[in-house]
Amino acid sequence: MVHRKDKTFRFDIWTLVQRPSSANPYALTAKYRGTKTPPRRVRSGTVARRRKRPGSRADGTPDTNSTEPVDVLDVSKDFAEEFDYDADDAESERQSDQSTHTQQIYLKACRLYKVTPTSYFYKNLNSDHIALQHHVLGPEGTKAIAIALVTNSSVQSLDLSDNNIGPKGVEYVADLLRENSFITDLTLANNDIRVEGARTIINVVKELDTLTKLNLSGNRFRECDAEIFKELIEETRHLKVLNLSHNEFRERGGEIIGEALANNDTLEVLDLSWNHLRRGGADAIAEGLEANTSLKRVNLSWNGFHMDGAKSLACTLEYNTTLQELDLTCNRINKECLNHLLKGLKKNSTLRTLKLGWNPITSVGAMTLLAAINETKTIGLTELDLGDQIVEKPFEVLLEEMEKQRKIQVTYGISYGQGGASKNDDDEALVNESPVVVLMEFGKLMGFRLIDLFSAMDKDGSKSLDKDEIKQGLRYANIPLGEKALDKLIEKLDIDGDGEIDFGELMMGQQEHRKKLSKMYLASANDEDVEETEVGRVRVKLQRLMAKKMKGNPEFKSKVEQFQCSLQSGFTDISNQQPSNEKMKLEVTFQDPNWKELHV
User: Fold this and answer.
1) Of the candidates 69, 71, 82, which has an alpha carbon nearest to the alpha carbon of residue 110?
2) Which pTM does this prediction carry?
3) How far apart, in Å, are the Cα atoms of 189 and each of 168, 193, 243, 541?
4) 3-state SS of the chain: helix, strand, coil percent to 5?
5) Measured at the alpha carbon of residue 141, what is the angle toward residues 110 and 18, in degrees to the nearest 5?
6) DSSP string, 374-413
7) 247, 220 Cβ separation under 8 angstroms
8) Which helix (H) or strand (E) covers residue 318, if one does?
9) CB neighbours of 572 closer than 8 A, spacing ≥ 6?
């Protein structure tokens, strides 16, 4: 290690960072200049030929009699042919002196640590944003990049997502941040940095006044790790954006982070989506938001807020005057939860965007929400996202009237009044689709978990259902399939062909469904057509089929509403198709790992 001015650096080759004289007023690394002459510059965009090493014969073999020294860090000799960049790239010709110098440093570091140089990084060292996702850098590759960026004043945003850098790689990034005050946006998502890496980067962020955006999503942080993030949230005075999504803070972690939010007055954007926040954790997060006075955008999607979280969020909306955007997508918010939210929403005039997609609020709940916004003029919403929620014709009529009087944008699914004779709208539309994807998406559309439906059908507790039991249960759930299509669907569910569908078969299908679901999210994030993905295609087909069956069919519509009502008090007795007076008690043995994973 090299010690300078009481600082300990984990880079052992700081002599590589030798910057030539520059008029740049932001030159922070003059102390690293040495007496060694900087390496010869290679004109940008030109690929030099490989020359024989000094001290070798024409055929490349070593010349033992030569006394000429060998410079092992000579870029032009060993690195020029390792890149695939376009030699005629006009942009490369315009690279600055600083860029060229950092390129030289990067190549030297790659040589020393025996890692393959990344051409994208090499060519973009003069840009303000570098995105190096999925390059499998590892700790050593990260070290080479960090060394190159020490003297760089161009890059402001650095994305190293999914590079398996681990805790060791985070140490190099931390040292980089201590020396480079130009990087303000850092992403280390999906890098398995664990609690050790998180502690390292958090200690640096608390010291700095330059980094304003930090993304640590997808690093598998657990409940016991929440304490270090509490320190970050409470002690940071400059961080504005924090992304902790796709981790596993769960109930206890939510309680800890919620307490920290009440003591923070600098964060403006917070993402806690996909963290299994529920019960006490959801309640604590809502209470923290109520006391917080700086957050403007909060993403709580894909958690389990349900009733506990909805009640607490109602109080948050009633008293919070800074929150402008709230994402509650897929939080098990039904009509009853929505009624609680409305109590707080009616007293809030600052919230502008509310996202409630993929929640079982039903068409009735959607209409109730829209009517409340129309009647309560103090509600400041300008954007309402209901995802793919099916609505009825009166909803569209009211929305059209509202749009004439106020500025509001509402996103929703298909109207019961729409439909047509499209070839995709018949009962055969889903026959060739994956049966498990169909069931998973139908469950989301209707607002129930398949494990609950299947458990209700499994009267004898055998964890296995014959085809008649499944057909009877799906009919009661009002799946929009005809007899022929339903038979084919059930036949595909029986993977082993034993005449029965067990939870193990459903389990295998669910794993496949999760992968397909992630593809749809990726397509949506890239502004691509989600209907091109399998899940998106099935979702649209289900919406169309449900809309078609509801239109002009009051009996089917009544059955759907009856089923939705039964979800509020527990599943009905499927054998008699009559509402049960007592809420069903599901006897789930959580010692079986398959049961743990069946929470759709």
Assistant:
1) 82
2) 0.64
3) 15, 9, 9, 34
4) 45, 10, 45
5) 45
6) HH-TT---SEEE-TT--B-HHHHHHHHHHHHHS--EEE--
7) yes
8) helix 306-319
9) 456, 476, 563, 566, 578, 579, 580
Angle in degrees, 0-180, between the axes of helices 534-550 and 435-446, rounded to the nearest 10: 60
Count of alpha carbons within 13 Å of 99, Cβ hemisphere only? 19
Q: How far apart are CA 477 and CA 468, in angstroms?
A: 14
**Which of 130, 142, 132, 134 lies closest to 167, judged by CA?**
142
Instruction: Round to whole Å and give the CA distance between 273 and 277.
Output: 9
Answer for the pair 187, 245: CB distance below 8 angstroms, yes or no.
Answer: no
What is the residue type of 490? Answer: I
Domain positions in the chain are 424-596
Tokens of 99: 């860029």
CA pair distance 558, 554, nearest whole angstrom: 6
Q: Which pair of structure tokens corresponds to residue 112? A: 């020393």
Write the CB contacts of 140 (distance below 8 Å, at least 6 apart in sequence): 113, 114, 115
Name the DSSP class of 37: P
> Does an H or E element contain 8, and which?
strand 7-9
Residues linked to residue 354 through DSSP beta bridges, in sequence order: 326, 384
- Cβ neighbors of 41 (< 8 A, separation 6 or more) are 100, 104
Block residue for tokens 């995105």: 131
pLDDT tens over the chain, length 600 residues: 444 444 444 555 445 554 444 334 333 333 333 334 444 444 444 444 444 444 444 444 444 444 443 333 343 344 444 444 433 343 444 444 445 788 989 999 999 999 999 999 999 988 999 999 999 999 999 999 999 999 898 999 999 999 999 999 999 999 999 999 999 999 999 999 999 999 999 999 998 889 999 999 999 999 999 999 999 999 999 999 999 999 999 999 999 999 999 999 999 999 999 999 999 999 999 999 999 999 999 999 999 899 999 999 999 999 999 999 999 999 989 889 999 999 999 999 999 999 999 898 988 899 999 999 999 989 999 999 998 888 888 999 999 999 999 899 999 987 765 444 343 444 556 767 777 788 888 888 777 777 777 777 776 667 777 777 777 777 777 787 777 777 777 777 777 777 777 777 777 777 777 778 777 777 777 777 777 788 888 888 888 887 777 776 777 777 777 776 766 555 544 444 443 333 333 233 223 333 233 233
- List the structure tokens of 25: 């007023």
For residue 508, what is the enclosing H or E element? helix 503-525
Residue-by-residue DSSP string for 443-499? HHHHT--HHHHHHHH-TT--SEEEHHHHHHHHHHTT-S--HHHHHHHHHHH-SS-SS
